[in-house]
Amino acid sequence: MLNIIVCIKQVPMVSQLPWDSRTGTLKRELAQAMMDPASRRGLEAAIQIKEQQPARITAITMGPPMAEEILHQARALGADQGILLTDRKMAGADTFLTSLILARAIQQECRGFDLIICGAQTSDSETGQVGPQLAEELDIPAIGFVNHVAVKPTTIEVQRHVDDFSETLEMDLPGLVTVDLTAYKPRYLALAGVEQAFAPQGVNLPAISIVDASQLGFDGKFNALKDSPTRIIDVFSPAAQKETRVLKGSVKQVVDQLFDEYGKIIGGAMGKDLKTHDHDGVK
Ligand SMILES: Cc1cc2nc3c(=O)[nH]c(=O)nc-3n(C[C@H](O)[C@H](O)[C@H](O)COP(=O)(O)OP(=O)(O)OC[C@H]3O[C@@H](n4cnc5c(N)ncnc54)[C@H](O)[C@@H]3O)c2cc1C
Predict the structure, then answer these.
(1) Choosing a second label site near 147 at 20 to 30 A (CA), which of 21, 25, 125, 131?
(2) Ligand 1 centre from 29 Cα, in Å?
(3) Are residues 116 and 255 in the same domain?
(4) How far apart are CA 263 and CA 283, in angstroms?
(5) Which protein residue's CA is at the shortest distance from atom 22 of ligand 1?
(6) 213 and 147, same structural domain?
(7) So what's the pLDDT on residue 31?
């Protein structure tokens, strides 16, 4: 049986995310939470694999206690088990520590996994670093931004778009893929799924396990906020900048000025090297 792990993150609904322009911070606590759309596509990829062959799906998330909600949602959609990594000591983890904590939990709680699926990047912090860093931490191969996964006996075949062409790649298992937003349209949550997610479980098989920092072997001094090597210096909304200039003179003079002063910008947008001599014929 294929052992699949899907990493899912709970994110605020961005459309509802209030912004404090004075402090430059997002008021996450005021927004409704949801499963990160890329993670949800990763889960859909796992469910579609499970529909084709025997597989067991473990959904794992690191976040505050309320992140348990998305594990119930994942189970209702088709995951067999959920793992919540939560602890105040883990709060404020940057992507490096998030990957390290996820890796440690996977090594400890999910021995013998075959495939890890992550979203390519989240809808809130969207660094796109957790998947590749997690693969590095676990010392397994990884392919990013895939839009289709086909499982073979000991490998997977994946497809992805790169620039203007499509690639088909094969990767040994165990391995990790990140799924992009164009792939795997998420299914609706069926009522039967919700019923199944809340059905009583066997004693040896908790539907959702909750794991803290000490259970993962982090000592009492561990503090993700302080121990994270990345610092957020500032968060700000870039001010829109507009400029109105009136270019005067003959048509040739105006065009010359336009190309001299803005040729680089216009050419950059067109993918061309626009220089003054390109319009010598203009009078
Ligand atoms: C108590 C607590 C509070 C937290 N509060 C916040 C918070 O306020 N804001 C915040 O952004 N983060 C918070 N985190 C989580 C952590 O800091 C972020 O998950 C991490 O920095 C991911 O960055 P990203 O969104 O850029 O990931 P990306 O690299 O863009 O994510 C790509 C993919 O990696 C996987 N992934 C990413 N993060 C997680 C995760 N946490 N669990 C499982 N899979 C994941 C998903 O598949 C995702 O689609 C908290 C964690 C804890 C324990």
Answers:
(1) 125
(2) 15
(3) no
(4) 18
(5) 95
(6) yes
(7) 77
Q: What is the pLDDT of residue 275?
A: 64
Do residue 51 and residue 133 come from a single domain?
Answer: yes
Which of 10, 31, 28, 29 shows the shortest CA–CA distance to 84?
Answer: 10
- State how far the Cα of 12 lies from the Cα of 217, in Å rounded to an integer: 29
Work out how many domains the chain is built from and give that number: 2
Same domain, residue pair 136 and 186 = yes
Q: What is the CA(235)–ligand 1 centre distance, in A?
A: 17
Low-confidence ranges of the chain (pLDDT < 70): 16-17, 19-29, 200-206, 275-283
Question: Does residue 234 lie within any of the structural domains?
Answer: no
190 and 255 assigned to the same domain: no
Residue nearest to atom 48 of ligand 1 (CA): 119
Question: In terms of domains, do 223 and 251 share one?
Answer: no
| Burial 173-206, CB ≥16 within 10 A → b, else e | bbbbbbbbeebbeeeeeeeebeeebeeeeeeeee
pLDDT of residue 202: 58
Based on the fold, state whether residues 143 and 82 are members of the same structural domain: yes
pLDDT, tens only, 264-282: 788 877 777 776 555 555 5
Tell me the average pLDDT of the chain: 88
Instruction: Provide the residue range defining the domain that includes 186.
Output: 2-227
Cα 54 to ligand 1 centre (Å): 29
Q: Which residues line ligand 1 (CB under 6 A)?
A: 7-9, 28, 36, 38-39, 42, 60-64, 86, 90-91, 93-95, 98, 102, 118-119, 121-122, 124-131
pLDDT of residue 210: 96
